Amino acid sequence: MRLLIRKARILDPSQGLDLEGDLLIEEGRIVALDREIPPPSDCEIFEAQRLWALPGLIDLHVHLREPGEEWKEDLETGTTAAAAGGFTAVACMPNTRPPNDSPEVTRYLLSRAREVGRTRVWPVACISKGQEGRELAPFGELKEAGAVALSDDGRPVADSGLMRLALEYAASFDLPVISHAEDPGLSAGGQVNEGPVAARLGLKGIPAEAEAVAIFREVRLAALTGVPVHIAHVSTALSVEILRRAKEEGLPVTAETAPHYFTLTEEAVLEYNTQAKVNPPLRTEVDREAVRQALAEGVIDAVATDHAPHSPLEKEVEFPAAAFGLLGLETAVPLTLNLVREGLLSPLRFAELLSTAPARILKVPGGTLKPGSPADVTLIDPDLPWVVTEEELHSKSKNSPFLGWEMRGRAVLTLVEGEVRWRLR
Ligand SMILES: NC(=O)N[C@@H](CC(=O)O)C(=O)O
Ligand SMILES: [Zn+2]
Ligand SMILES: [Zn+2]
């Protein structure tokens, strides 16, 4: 099958390309990219005027809840939501039941992905057995089974010595390490950002320092070991300053943030709105502004969603009993496009944050439209207005703080290896 995408705005950070042109796809690969490609015989044509064509978006941080919490999400619904959000690949975190700390779980995820996956699935395995922070998981076996990275996401690795060992051991298997940076002593019992909002609600706060202290530890461990560390879900101005300094020192540290941190503030939890309860918590306007600047300046390298589905069982309860986490896959594109519209990001930087950088951080294929590459392509209508409703969302859960929001911009076509995995209406 051949497909010619015509007159799109082609954005490919891997080649520094931002041009209006055509993209020819054949047998699952990109075979040509040019200002104008004469349609070959026997070719389907997709007219893409006013649309953006990007290397398939890659979400390096999602929770698919399989195995063990399939009432919230499963591999099929999670990857369907991903494709609808414009993603061609997702990296799934290991805090499942059981956690992905064994080659059996990794292999199970990959076999489910082959059977029902709508996108590529890159399993992230545990740093520690059972995510208990005591003993390292079997990195070599996990890598052999198909894990692409390591993280105890959902929980921090509290023991700094164990984290150092994890970095050294991970390096010998060339597995990236992703840190859920949280000092558990400082965050213990916390529900929302520490400050006036927490006080007003009568809830225990989580200070910015709980994140900063942990990020500083990872920065120093990267310096000590020379092994790269990737920081998950950066939420504060203080964290941004630590990362800025680390980068100035030339240390091998990368970081992601999520759209909720550059869109919302702690005000979203007023009235005990559990849909906005997330870890790390939504912070202040100063933090939000710092995160936005960090994305523009390159201090934060990538946008990930931290898509964390929960059912009403976990969310429609009193605030302290509610689970942390919110949906992200289907709202990331319009929320990140807001930063383009505000003049903070160029369209090329947008593509970098959501595709090329995640591929580089995870060391997985993708993030490019170079001829010869697999045809993982996302077409976005950057202006399309739509409203977030439960019916629109493909995720099994509906825990989005953006329900009812008017959005602008949406994926209209998602191709994985040239196959249509999502087409808007
Ligand atoms: N971010 C969250 O609030 N929740 C995540 C865990 C995590 O990402 O740390 C979850 O698994 O629900
Ligand atoms: Zn986390
Ligand atoms: Zn997470």
UniProtKB/TrEMBL annotation:
InterPro entries: DHOase, DHOase/Allantoinase_Hydrolase, DHOase_cat, Dihydroorotase_CS, Metal-dep_hydrolase_composite, Metal_Hydrolase. The keyword rRNA processing does not apply. It catalyses: (S)-dihydroorotate + H2O = N-carbamoyl-L-aspartate + H(+). Binds 2 Zn(2+) ions per subunit. It is an enzyme of class 3 (hydrolase). One of its GO terms (cellular component) is cytoplasm. Pfam families: DHOase. Keywords: Hydrolase, Metal-binding, Pyrimidine biosynthesis, Zinc. Zn(2+) 2 binds at residues 153, 180, 233. CDD domains: DHOase_IIa. It comes from the Bacteria. GO terms for molecular function: allantoinase activity; dihydroorotase activity; zinc ion binding. Its EC number is 3.5.2.3. Belongs to the metallo-dependent hydrolases superfamily. DHOase family. Class I DHOase subfamily. This is Dihydroorotase. It comes from Thermosulfurimonas marina.
